[in-house]
Design goal:
alpha/beta, Rossmann fold, 434 Repressor (Amino-terminal Domain), homodimer, 43% helix, 6-stranded mixed β-sheet, 3 domains, 12 helices, 345 residues, 6-stranded parallel β-sheet, DNA-binding
Chain lengths: 345, 345
Amino acid sequence: MSTIVDVANLARVSTATVSRVINTPDQVSPATRDKVLKAMETCQYRYNALAKGFATQKTRIIGVVVPSITNPVFAESTRGIQDVLSACGYHTILGNTDYTYAREAETLQVFRQMQVEGIIISTTDLKGEALAALNREDFPFVLTYSTVRSGPLSCVGVDNFAGGYRATAHLTANGHTRIAMLAGAFSFSDKSRHRWYGYRKCLRDNKLSYDAALVLQSDYTLEGGMAGLDRLMALDHPPTAVFCSNDYLALGIMEKARHLSLSIPRDLSLVGFDDIPMVGFLTPGLDTIHQPAYDMGQESARVLVSRLKDGPGRPVHKLLPTQLIKRGSVQPPTGTPREIPCNHN
Amino acid sequence: MSTIVDVANLARVSTATVSRVINTPDQVSPATRDKVLKAMETCQYRYNALAKGFATQKTRIIGVVVPSITNPVFAESTRGIQDVLSACGYHTILGNTDYTYAREAETLQVFRQMQVEGIIISTTDLKGEALAALNREDFPFVLTYSTVRSGPLSCVGVDNFAGGYRATAHLTANGHTRIAMLAGAFSFSDKSRHRWYGYRKCLRDNKLSYDAALVLQSDYTLEGGMAGLDRLMALDHPPTAVFCSNDYLALGIMEKARHLSLSIPRDLSLVGFDDIPMVGFLTPGLDTIHQPAYDMGQESARVLVSRLKDGPGRPVHKLLPTQLIKRGSVQPPTGTPREIPCNHN
DNA sequence: TTGTACGCGTTATCAC
DNA sequence: GTGATAACGCGTACAA
């Protein structure tokens, strides 16, 4: 593999000139420029960005950490991130943690060793040492999909509390009184926890008692959803509606409901969270809380880029709006009046 | 940021010793080792993998190029790739091309400039200069999702011809005679082209005439699927069945069919390709050709890793089996006998 | 406009 | 077991 030295020798110029031809072509006379370009051609010279990164301490690489590569919602936000970053001349490198803190810490370590210039992360442990360390060192990073509305960490996400509230309110407005929540385990998802807070608050505002038996924590998998429904339907007083803390869980429930010959929404109403593309195709379509994933990705990238440009400043907290999408997976419990006005937004 | 030089000074040893503590701890006496580790601690030393890559000309980074990050089938295969690569001590960096050759060439260039050690790519242009260049230089790379069964390029994929044949045979076996194909544009998808070859061959074997008006090329998007169905139903003799060259297109068709009040499978039978997770949740479920995406990813990574280990050898061509999954989106055209035995496998 | 010389953090090759 | 030092490819003062 040839280097600028080879090119320089061939063109009978110095390496500095070759470097200038690459980086600031106008600073070199057309004659020598052509000479150098020709030389590059003949040696099949290939630029070494690694060496540049090494020399300048700037790699133009941003690390993106997501908990799951299979959940389409993360594909969307990642697309948003990439679109903005590549427009700003940055490259993206993606790491996935499968919702485990160990892999998150490891990924973070690898990224830093690779000298990424910044990190965008959907974390599984907001209070973890890994993030604390980044923050201590003033390393540029931003949280996505989070609900943090204050504190030292920059964060772009949605109001998960409000989303959880809205989802539950949709069910209470339809006359449901036994409303379960199938949540991603709070241990790895503060988002899920905030949605649960919203759920509880909404129950309270509607004078519905909170029944801990109706709240299940689960993996974010189809199997988790399926197992969850099994447990819920085995209760003495099974719920008439379930709020799932993401669409994946809701899919698991729908699948399991089919096995149990439960009809949705007749026997069970269902609300999800995320609005991944496919839930609009189901029959019935899934009522869900839409997250603007692509926009959130874009915004996260923008926040990171300006942090990179302007240096450390006060942390940014942006919560994007969510939206309830009604498609037909919710109806009043059998034998209940149709729709009750909802004044909790 | 402290370096091994700082550590060496602090521990009163040479940089070589520090390096040994990092890479081959047994080659250094326990006493000095501890001394060095302590020094690392106190200067908050962080290893610089970039510098190592620069010094050794080995980055342990593999570039993965996919045409779409949103299509779940690529998420699956990427997961397979990552699982194998990380087990072999490689890091993965993901690039996405949105099915455009320009972005593919650019991504390839960036990856090479970053000094990736190998590339796994689902290409949009098999005959393109970008791949040819890689091959000329003996750069280690493998194609995925491809159908190439010979030639100089290593390739792990599925038999798209057989898959296309099988999908079509499923329709002819059900008595369909006007079978359309909605294909990803051949210009960017040789997979789609091979599926089309299978489609044509199957028609011929069944003595069905080939009608070019029934074959549409499209983007791999929902909108492409929707527009496609519009055009097909506007024909003088609309088809009674459609083979879609991926599930995404089939989803678009299902959505559009709903708008047109066409019932699937009563008014229109449908077969897809890929078997992305969600199509099992639809009503009716989509009949489709299952690709073992995760396995294919794993296998691609294995092929690349052994190429990396053993140096250039003869190219590998592995075609994994596909499988027809029946879920209910196909039935005989109205007023036709039920199932005709199929002897084309 | 062009050239010289050094630094970036690590590994590898010798010596000792 | 340990130390000194030359690579690795590029950017960049600074000098010419």
